[in-house]
Amino acid sequence: MKIHEYQAKGVLRRYNVPVPRGEVAFSPDEARRVAGTLGGRVVVKAQIHAGGRGKGGGVKLADNPEQAARLAEQIIGMTLVTHQTGPEGRLVKRVLVEETLPIDRELYLGIVLDRKLERPVLMASSEGGMDIEEVAAKTPELILKETIEPGIGLMPHQARRLAFGMGLEGEAVKGIVNAMLALAKAYEATDANLLEINPFVITTDERAVALDAKMDFDDNGLFRHPDLIELRDLDEEDPLETDASNFNLNYIKLDGNVGCMVNGAGLAMATMDIIQHAGGRPANFLDVGGGANAEQIKNGFRIILSDANVKAILINIFGGILRVDVLAAGVVAAARELDIQVPIVLRLEGTKVDEGKRILQESGMNFTVAANMKEAAEKVVALAS
Amino acid sequence: MSILLDEDTRIVVQGFGRAGAFHAQQCKDYGAKIVGAVHPGKGGGEKDGTPIFNTMREAVDAVRPAASIVFVPAAGAADAIIEAADGGLELVVCITEGIPAQDLVKVSFALRGSETRLIGPNCPGLISPGKSKLGIMPGYIHKQGNVGVVSRSGTLTYEAVGQLSVLGIGQSTCVGIGGDPIIGTNFIDVLDLFNEDPDTHAVIMIGEIGGTAEEEAAAFIKEHFTKPVAAFIAGRTAPPGRRMGHAGAIISGGKGTASEKVAALEDAGIAVAPTPADMGATLAGLI
């Protein structure tokens, strides 16, 4: 689960990570008030769940509260397009109004889970403010790493190694070491997946401050954090995906016209692949889980059909222990209830598969039964075009 | 022969609720030697002839298990795995999906240097066809034979096994290693075991987008593996930056794409099936 920058800074503040003074504003009036309270020059930053906001025109400087209000008026309500939003962009509904700082150096700090080491890793780079993936590709030697051991946490000597490695000295070292220890604590305590500060700045008076903040939490850990769940912003999610998640369905919208419903994530991806191989384009990823029951099938249909591009649907269920006759009855009932008009191709495996096929055939509805994945993909692609 | 599991492997079930009891019965019906269950608070009782214990240590003393299968819900699953390791079990298979990644970091830390091998989590488990089943896969689709199967997926593995069995190609052992970013046993660990198993003559490996486990396995195969290998990678059409059902199936920062994995596998001389419908046929072409 992603959160906004201002929310991430709120979380980090609780763990004593130094962040600029600032507050969120939902209207120009609020922006004026916040800018007035902060005093001096402020920055007005669009809050959306995507990077590259500055280049897209979503980050502007204001010299006084009136100007902050005017900028907020421009930014709130704009559709911000960045390299991460896709061409459709994202509607901005709130801005962060924050003090500006005299910046001496821009660094990068990030904590991610390293799958190979099976540990979180703190990455630091002197090349802050840039796309870190580009730095990793061009100058990998400029990214320094320290492994965080569970129970022990990040040790001060590790943080010092990173600080000196980036060429820092004096008061700045002390500041960034404390900030890194605090970031590591915040990462662990919130079950974060990703915690990224880009840039992390050293000011001309040697203060170390997290100028930006990006946090992404492990969905599997959220049950431990009811306070973080409240930070979820449904406006940033695809409404169909939100709808699906309420029924324990894993749905991701794509741009093709062949809808698909599959049990199991690997088989669901493979089904998308074979649709493409057959010359079609998948409209979605939909994993109804290893089990798949009638209620899930019904909601799966409903969600797939909410996408007007869908011209045909492929259901691919390798049930195994699951009874195909029960599943088929569920498919028939859902198709009737929802009055589904698009053609449906089914490929079903599991116990009582012959009874299942009979139920589909006797339903008198527009079902095509396929013997295997290849045949199913070819049939559904032909029906969709 | 087979790897990791056979008809003599003594198994306890951890988490003997509805799902745990159901699948334990399915395993038993297939021939698995289920000797007990651990379910805190239900100790002293028994269900369908299976004695229940409050703690793993009690179970170890009473029924001497070598392996366990974990059905404990996500919040307590990491604890169950570590309890099994504390009991000295050789093999722990964790079916549970949705365990927080940081809990798995702790599991990884706790199991380092221990004799316990973890398979999973978020996996279908493993089966040595005709001998024993320590998982939730449908037993009847399998056929005893000489092909080793190793996969990050569940139902996609059933698909591959189904295709092999229809072609008359049996399996020595099928191992689902799980779809999470942190798992106990990786492709290389299983390939190493298949390499040493005289009754495994060829291997089919099923990977998916995310991470670099397939690339590492490809390098291992090129360097050390002596038997023919077929492979399939799911997710050629997956969009970047999205988690495709499995917590570990995500292309992040342009890394972990299907095309990189296919290229690495082909470079190692592995026959990669062009579609999931060709997995069985691709393997058949090698033997």
Most extensive protein-chain contact, per-chain counts: A-B, 54 and 61 residues
- What's the gyration radius of chain A in Å? 26 Å
Major pleated sheet of chain B: 7 strands, mixed
How many E-type strands of chain B?
14
Mean pLDDT of chain A: 93
Termini separation of chain A: 36 Å
Tell me what the structure shows:
The complex is a heterodimer of chains A (385) and B (287). Chain A is of the alpha+beta class and 385 residues long. In chain A, 36% of the residues lie in helices and 26% in strands. In chain A, helix 11 (324-337) links the parallel strand 16 and strand 17 (344-351). In chain A, helix 11 (324-337) packs parallel to helix 12. Chain A starts with a helix and ends with a helix. The mean pLDDT of chain A is 93. Chain B has 287 residues and is an alpha/beta fold. Helices cover 33% and strands 23% of the residues of chain B. In chain B, the strands form two sheets. A seven-stranded mixed beta sheet of chain B has the order 3-4-2-1-5-6-7, with helices on both faces. In chain B, strands 9-8-11-10-12-13-14 form a seven-stranded mixed beta sheet, with helices on both faces. The longest helix of chain B is centred in the N-terminal third of the chain and has 13 residues, at 18-30. Chains A and B meet through helix 9, strand 16, strand 17 and helix 13 of A and helix 4 and helix 5 of B.
Question: Could you outline the blueprint of secondary structure elements for this entry?
Answer:
The complex is a heterodimer of chains A (385) and B (287).
Chain A: H1 5-14, E1 22-25, H2 28-38, E2 42-46, E3 59-62, H3 65-75, E4 79-80, E5 90-91, E6 95-99, E7 103-114, E8 119-125, H4 132-138, E9 143-147, H5 156-165, H6 171-189, E10 192-203, E11 208-210, E12 214-217, H7 226-229, H8 239-245, E13 250-253, E14 258-262, H9 265-277, E15 284-287, H10 294-305, E16 312-323, H11 324-337, E17 344-351, H12 353-362, E18 367-369, H13 373-384
Chain B: E1 10-14, H1 18-30, E2 33-38, E3 46-47, E4 50-53, H2 56-63, E5 67-70, H3 74-86, E6 91-94, H4 101-111, E7 117-119, E8 125-128, E9 132-135, E10 144-151, H5 155-166, E11 171-176, H6 187-196, E12 202-208, H7 213-224, E13 229-234, H8 258-267, E14 271-272, H9 279-284
Parallel strand pairs in B: 1-2, 1-5, 2-4, 5-6, 6-7, 10-11, 10-12, 12-13, 13-14
Antiparallel strand pairs in B: 3-4, 8-9, 8-11
